[in-house]
């Protein structure tokens, strides 16, 4: 197999990338922007060398403990569980959370072979039972798989005597009742709050 | 900027890849399949080193002349102009063409800054005027940009005294008149052949 075919094969291993997209990426990088190709090869190589996991929260980190976990101004009594670093960034961007995180790096998905075991629930339970953590906010996505993950986690964490909460469901800010989908409207009715 | 952010930046330079897809690729490669990450970094690095262009047809090649151009059983009097290596492969797969190729590696697209100059029309005209080539089959795509490219090429090649043809437009094999789009049906009527 020649170098071009091997490159296509490598691109096709990316999630959601088939033969056409792989070809598009490879032709673009080799014919139009070889500097971007070099940048991608370099950053990937460097990433593989440098990027490990934070031992406290499981996110990507170049140091044994990431900067968020090392920040001692944060509130160690609250732990938010998120699926990905992007979800963590979204919560951080609200400026409304000063606790710590656990990043699952995925969600339970039996069809894709992702089990509580392979997601490292054991390590999470150990982290949550450090004696400092009082409340665990399960902030997985409100998708079927995120909900299933939350359900399993909630059960396990409650057994450890921890207070478990989830993000509120309801109308988005600026939302109109007429246009919101029914399950969301039903949830916001059920979870109504004192006015 | 940390190694993860630099990796995201590199992925975002790929065509059609935004922040979400870049994040998906990076998380997948670093968290789920580091072997695929190494493979991509390696094949990209190797590709940059090894893959140049065939001096006869402009396609990607690890040798100065690609295996198709070096194959002296092929018919040097016919030259097919295609947009990409994938288009060349599609023609080869028909087993109906034994001539040679010129691979444009793109199509004229003023909006994206791709001009006849940057596409190397000069080199193509020189190649087509080698004295052997009698007929040039312009096999660009039947998109607006492909048609514009074909129109320009046709003009330039005819001035060199070459016979210029294009792929036939018409109903696909197995197609039904009732369901085919009107421009295609009109073209197949105009280009009707002896029955």
Summarize the structure.
The structure is a homodimer of 195-residue chains. The first copy, chain A, is an alpha/beta fold and 195 residues long.
Describe this structure in words.
Two copies of one chain form a homodimer. The first copy, chain A, folds into two domains: 48 residues, RecR Domain 1 (Helicase, Ruva Protein, domain 3, Orthogonal Bundle), CATH 1.10.8; 113 residues, Dna Topoisomerase Vi A Subunit, Chain: A, domain 2 (3-Layer(aba) Sandwich). The first copy, chain A, contains eight helices and six strands; from the N terminus they run αααββαβαβαβαβα. In chain A, α5 links the parallel β3 and β4. The first copy, chain A, is globular and about 65 Å long. The mean pLDDT of chain A is 93. At the A-B interface, α1, α2 and α3 of A face α1, α2 and α3 of B.
């Amino acid at each position: 197999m020649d170098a071009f075919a091997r490159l296509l094969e490598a691109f096709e291993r990316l999630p959601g990338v088939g033969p056409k997209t792989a070809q598009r990426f490879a032709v673009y990088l080799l014919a139009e922007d070889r500097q971007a190709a070099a940048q991608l090869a370099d950053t990937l190589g460097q990433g593989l060398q440098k990027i490990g996991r934070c031992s406290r929260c499981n996110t990507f980190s170049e140091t044994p403990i990431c900067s968020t976990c090392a920040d001692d101004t944060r509130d160690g009594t609250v732990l938010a569980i998120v699926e990905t670093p992007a979800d963590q960034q979204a919560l951080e961007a609200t400026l409304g959370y000063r606790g710590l995180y656990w990043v699952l790096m995925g969600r339970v998905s039996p069809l894709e072979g992702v089990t509580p075991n392979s997601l490292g629930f054991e390590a999470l339970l150990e982290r949550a039972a450090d004696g400092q953590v009082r409340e665990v906010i399960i902030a997985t996505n409100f998708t079927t798989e995120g909900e299933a993950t939350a359900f399993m986690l909630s059960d396990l964490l409650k057994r450890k005597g921890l207070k478990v909460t989830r993000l509120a469901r309801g109308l988005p800010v600026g939302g109109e009742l007429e246009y919101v989908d029914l399950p969301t409207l039903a949830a916001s009715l059920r979870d109504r709050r004192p006015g």
